[in-house]
Please model this.
Amino acid sequence: MACEGTLIGEISALGAALCWAISSAMTKSLSGKVEPLSLNFIRCTGAALILWAILPFYQGVDGFSFIPAQALFYLAFSALLGMSIGDTLYIQGLRLINVTLAFPIAQAATPLLTVVTAVFFLSEEITKAFLLGTVLVLSGVYLVAIPAGTTVRSLGPPFEKRGTGIVLILIASLFWTVSIAFLKLGLQEVDPFLANSIRLPISAMALLPLVFFEKSFPEAAGSSKPRLVVLGSLTGFLAFGLGGLLFLTAIQNAGAGKAIVLTSCAPLLGLPISVFFLKEEVTRRILAGTILVVMGMTLVF
Model:
């Protein structure tokens, strides 16, 4: 039964990565049309509303009465640290450095920090094969995410802004790591669906005051605002709703370390979308990265 539960967690982690990859591709169409904080608020709120609409057909609100107070605190705190503070810091970092630098830093730092946390604070067992697999997966993700010929100068702004941006991304990764640790603790006695139904509204409420200080839509948006809100809500449901539910299931069954390493494969799972829908070219570098990720995943499993 333990092996079966671990397998469910591993498959859920890959499912979450796929949801995040699709959501990321959809979010590209919103670039420049909705301000970052407002978009994050729309995504959290939309996902929360959809989950709460499904809730009566699942366990109903009565299920919340069985959640221990300590678990409720862990879940709420993880939402504030990860979605509200962590994502906001990441967005601020993106304003200072290019995504070609920010994304791989986050994809490398968060899994490594989470693996360390899983070993020393969550008492998860980490084997040599798992560590080797982690290195291979992160190396493959680097090859897929970073274009060939990329130099430090090509990664964007002047050194001062770049340094500040990198620091913000690393701090965001730290907040995400601590958030995942609290998630692991909170999920010990809580159904993942109910846990996600708690975390999303809390994150949305925490972002609401910040949205008032930001101009959500540019003037050019005009009558397309409702469409942007609907699209933002759908990307939120994919990323935070369905993707979040699968991620929580992965943490609960496979452990925080393994879950975060497997979900770091999101760029790889986004390749078919990039090729068939965005008409992007598959290079030898991308193929090499894909092979490394597949080899790493066989060791992680």
User: Anything to note?
Assistant: The chain has a mean pLDDT of 78. The CA atoms of residues 48 and 200 lie 5 Å apart. Residues 2-126+149-215+223-257 form one domain.
